[in-house]
Specification:
Layout (H helix, E strand, L loop, with lengths): L1 H37 L10 H6 L2 E5 L9 E5 L6 E2 L2 H4 L10 E7 L2 E6 L4 E6 L5 E5 L5 E6 L4 E6 L4 E6 L4 E7 L4 E7 L2 E6 L4 E6 L4 E7 L4 E6 L5 E5 L8 E6 L4 E7 L10 E3 L5 E5 L3 E6 L11 E2 L5 E6 L6 E5 L6 E7 L5 E9 L1 E6 L2
Antiparallel strand pairs: 1-2, 1-28, 2-3, 4-5, 5-6, 6-7, 8-9, 9-10, 10-11, 12-13, 13-14, 14-15, 16-17, 17-18, 18-19, 20-21, 21-22, 22-23, 24-25, 25-26, 26-27
Length: about 375
């Protein structure tokens, strides 16, 4: 009898303990709910247009693929002020989109190429207010103005180059390319376009919107620059056992006049940019940023600016003063950083930007 009584007391104690735990859990959950219900979401505050127009540097933050977290950062090189989420803040909390690939400037209008969102957003560069968009694009990469009326848009998957009416903001045609197209340059009524998977630079008659020649290159041509002698430089990033290479092409004869190849096992030639006088060429390697003269016949053996364990994802050279902006994507998850260097290679400043900064543009 004593054992049964003790068991009943233990059962009663366990029941009271369970009820107490349940009540505590309920009160905790209720309190959390009440706190969340009382918490207010901060309203989006538009950024003053005076601060936007004073900022002279535009940072393209790609964002993560399919996460829709691309963004625009602005930097004022005179005051060092950084403005974040500029498009979203000045467009009533509308997100920029998925993968901000590149930007083209025509006057005071910026054309923001949204790769995985399949369109191009138009903005007023002085306010970053939306001015509309160009749809009916598959996976746009870069935009090249041909005239006040017309532009070309390269594409990753479409195997064609789009022809866009700038006034109507519409795709009005296409040029069959046969593969993935990337950067483009306009020269003397011809557009030169890198076609990555076919190892070619396409030459397009911009009056007829048709391909008139294909220049065979090294593996995976991607980046283009035009030097002071009107010679075309092509960066071919390589593929498999085919090494990276820098090519100099005569755009008149369409012949390759110089081929600089990195045969080393760890060799890599990525994005290229020219100095303001267009006499020196910078290129990304696995170890950092390298520099050569356009008259050199060998690649550089040393870094002009070492990567210093940073994840240098892209870079740009300011055409007005030669300053170099390196884009550090860090781990492709957290906010990236921009490192600003003088033309001499001396570090001037660094600042935080959005996720995966891939390029920098300088407002006119």
């Amino acid at each position: 009898m004593e054992t049964d009584a003790r068991k009943k007391l233990l059962d009663q104690d366990q029941l009271e303990d369970q009820l107490m735990r349940r009540d505590c859990t309920f009160l905790l959950a209720f309190g959390l709910f009440a706190f969340m219900a009382c918490e207010k979401t901060e309203p989006i505050t538009p950024i003053d247009p005076n601060r936007i127009s004073a900022a002279d540097v535009v940072v393209v933050n790609e964002g993560n693929f399919q996460w829709g977290n691309a963004s625009v950062s602005l930097y004022n090189s005179q005051t060092d002020e950084v403005l974040e989420e500029v498009f979203r803040n000045n467009n009533q909390d509308v997100p920029l989109g998925d993968v901000f690939q590149s930007m083209t400037q025509i006057g005071s209008t910026g054309y923001l190429v949204m790769n995985n969102s399949n369109h191009i957003k138009l903005v007023d560069l002085n306010t970053f207010k939306s001015l509309g968009r160009i749809d009916q694009l598959n996976s746009p990469r870069y935009m090249l103005p041909i005239s006040q009326q017309k532009a070309y848009v390269s594409d990753l998957y479409e195997k064609a180059i789009y022809v866009v009416d700038l006034q109507a903001k519409q795709v009005v045609g296409s040029i069959t390319a046969g593969g993935h197209t990337e950067e483009m340059i306009l020269l003397n009524g011809r557009a030169f376009v890198t076609q990555v998977d076919s190892n070619e630079v396409l030459v397009i008659d911009t009056q007829q919107d048709s391909i008139i020649h294909r220049i065979k290159t090294a593996a995976s041509p991607r980046y283009l620059e035009l030097d002071k002698n009107q010679k075309l430089w092509v960066s071919c990033t390589g593929r498999g056992d085919q090494p990276s290479a820098l090519l100099q092409i005569n755009p008149s004869s369409l012949n390759i006049e110089k081929r600089l190849t990195d045969q080393s096992q760890a060799g890599f030639i990525g994005e290229i940019e020219l100095s303001p006088n267009k006499e020196e060429l910078y290129y990304l390697s696995h170890t950092g940023l390298k520099k050569i003269s356009i008259t050199d016949s060998l690649l550089s053996a040393t870094d002009f600016i070492s990567s210093q364990n940073r994840n240098i994802y892209g870079f740009s050279v300011n055409p007005s003063n030669g300053e170099i902006y390196l884009c550090d994507a860090i781990d492709f998850q957290q906010n990236g950083r921009i490192y600003q260097y003088a033309a001499s290679g001396a570090l001037l400043n660094d600042f935080s930007v959005g996720i995966i900064p891939g390029d920098v543009y300088f407002k006119p």
